[in-house]
Each structure stands twice: as C-alpha cells, then as structure tokens.
Amino acid sequence: MKNALLTLTILASLCATTLAFAGSDDAKWVAKCIADNKDEKVSIEVITKYCTCMNNKMDDNETLSISAWEKTHPTEQAACDKESGWK
Length: 87
Hints:
The protein is mainly alpha-helical. It has five helices and no strands.
C-alpha cells in the first residue's frame, strides 16, 4: 500500500509539472531522477522541484541521466538545491 501511494504521488507530481517541460522525453528523465532519489529524507514535492530544475538546466541533447549529470555540474546542482528547498 505504501508503494502504491508513493507511485500515485509521483504520478500526480509529474502530471502537475509536465506542462512546464519543453522536450518530449523530459518527463521520463524527471521520473528517473525522482526514482533515483526516493530514499532521500525530503518530501516528494522537493524532489520533484529539484529534478525539474536540473532537467531544465540540461541541454535537450544531453544523454546522461539527471543523476549522472548533476555529479559533473555542481553549480547547477547547488542552484537547484536552493530553488527546490532541498538544502
């Protein structure tokens, strides 16, 4: 039941933020980022804001996942941490 609720929350968050995406596969990348961060001790809303922010900073032709890309872009990561309220 807990997993079902988490899944529904993630889907609702994605639906709410999908309109802000420019590329067709952005929702897929953000969903992967959310899944990668599901065990963090922050709310799903903060994770969704962070992942959306990071996705928006990435080039549309980027092939790395958000989780991989953030490791090589600390300035963007810090900005999205702040914007999302993560830190």
